[in-house]
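Sequence in, structure out.
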Amino acid sequence: MSAESLEKATARYQTGRLAFESGQYREAVENLEKASALLARNSRLGGEVELWLVTAYEAAGRTEEAIALCQQLKRHPFAETNKQAKRLLYILQAPKLQRPSEWMTEIPDLGTLPDNESKVRVTVNPRKSSGQKTAEPEFVDLSQVNTRDNRFIWVALIAIGFTISYLIWSSF
């Protein structure tokens, strides 16, 4: 392997990792696949790139490809790589548990809400108990809310300053 191809592979690997960490899984898979193609599969760096590729496959929803690559990595010559591959394979093949709907939080589509800058929705008791009715949302007119500065922050900062000054003075 030439130094130029190693440099290209390392650059692709770093780009793929950054894409994965920022949630761009399809781009991460593309870069990691290209980096893997440039490296020797049995090298330490090649194994590391392919482990990242496994996690990128899983994040991109390509679980079968992730499992197949883990099966290959179980026979990798570097002990750390094959140990990590076995761990990942165990996780990937674990049965998927069903989560009760009470555990899930539904995120509403905010794009369907009308724009209204002068009022804010306040929910008094957002959780539903088994025997209670939920409270209706209450609208608060922001023009009626006291937003005048009460200078509390300045009083707190001065008190903190005096306390720190006293502690410094008393330590001498």
